[in-house]
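ok so i was messing around last nite and threw this chain in just to see what happens. nothing serious, just curious
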Amino acid sequence: LSLIEEKEISKEIMLPVSIFEANGLSALESICRYLKDNLGIDYSKIALLLNRNSRTIWTTYNNSLIKRKEKFLAKESEFFIPVSVFRNRKLSVLENIVSYLKDKFDLRYSEISVLLNRDERNIWTAYNKAKKKK
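result:
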């Protein structure tokens, strides 16, 4: 019953792309920080949603606090990514984000790089690695 409940929750949770433009945080750190701080989800549920170990989530969250002490604010966003996208462990978190934005919204690499506050070459590399892994 709890697995069915978690799957339903994961379908409903949509992450605004604006959370990934936080300077100094990795994509997974941004996701953990948003889910914990803004939505109040506990570590074990975040771990279930992201298909990861709860100790990994705890460590990632605490590392994000060290890197960025100020409150994590999510700005309004035009694009949203469902949490269920990150259950795919064959791809890295960044590869999942980039391939979702590229395939679903047909965005250019330059547009994705602005949204994620990353170098356009890194976006291109992540997408091409994801294509090879699929």
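not much to say yet. The longest strand covers residues 14-16.
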